[in-house]
């Protein structure tokens, strides 16, 4: 079969309108995508950097408190009563003493943290710690 050799694909002027329409649709989709809510929790975790703080060698139980005073346990928002029941159930199932690690928002007061520690003590958890990050050390300072 012989194909014609005089077939010219783009003989006319280059039309910008379809490309501009696709570009503007792309911009609109990107802007609308930026407005969609992100799943998760917005917390300003700014734990203090710590040098030479010991960790724990026992099992830990982690929970979080946000700026509004809501409690989070196992990625669920829980009330104080439910948190107490969950901590009691965790203590019953544990073979060693547990340590409560509190991931607190930057604006959580000391009173709320002390209240959580007392709540954990009532549930049978005697140790409670605030979550911290290790201090970042420059390579020049290590020499």
User: So how many helices?
Assistant: 4
Q: What distance lies between the first and last C-alpha atoms, to the nearest angstrom?
A: 77 Å
CATH structural architecture of the domain at 49-134:
2-Layer Sandwich
What structural class is derived from the secondary structure elements? Answer: alpha/beta
- Assess the beta-strand content as a share of residues: 15-25%
Give the class-level CATH name of the domain at 49-134. Answer: Alpha Beta
Helix fraction, binned, reads 25-40%
Q: In terms of per-residue confidence, which ranges show pLDDT below 50 for 5 or more consecutive residues?
A: none
Strand order of the largest sheet: 4-3-2-5-6
Question: At the third CATH level, what is the topology name of the domain at 49-134?
Answer: Nucleotidyltransferase, domain 5
Using the alpha-carbon principal axes, give the shape: elongated
Helix-strand pattern: HEEEEHEHEEH
Which value, in Å, is the CA radius of gyration? 28 Å
Keywords, separated by commas or semicolons:
143 residues, alpha/beta, Nucleotidyltransferase, domain 5, five-stranded mixed beta sheet, two-stranded parallel ribbon, 18% strand, elongated
Please explain how this structure is put together.
- The chain contains four helices and seven strands, in the order αββββαβαββα.
- Helix content is 36%, strand content 18%.
- The protein is of the alpha/beta class and 143 residues long.
- Helix 2 (80-93) crosses helix 3.
- Strands 4-3-2-5-6 form a five-stranded mixed β-sheet, with helices on one face. Strands 1-7 form a two-stranded parallel sheet.
- It has a domain at 49-134: Nucleotidyltransferase, domain 5 (2-Layer Sandwich).
């Amino acid at each position: 079969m012989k194909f014609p050799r005089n077939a010219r694909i783009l003989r006319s002027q280059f039309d910008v309108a379809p490309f501009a329409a696709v570009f503007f649709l792309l911009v609109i989709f990107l802007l609308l995508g930026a407005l969609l809510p992100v799943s998760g929790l917005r917390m300003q975790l700014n734990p203090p950097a710590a040098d030479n703080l010991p960790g724990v060698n026992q099992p830990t139980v982690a929970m979080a408190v946000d700026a509004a005073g809501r409690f989070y346990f196992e990625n669920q928002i829980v009330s104080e009563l439910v948190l107490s029941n969950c901590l009691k159930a965790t203590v019953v199932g544990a073979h060693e003493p547990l340590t409560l690690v509190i991931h607190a928002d930057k604006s959580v007061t000391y009173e709320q943290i002390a209240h959580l520690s007392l709540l954990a003590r009532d549930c049978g958890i005697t140790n409670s710690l605030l979550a911290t990050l290790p201090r970042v050390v420059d390579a020049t300072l290590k020499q």
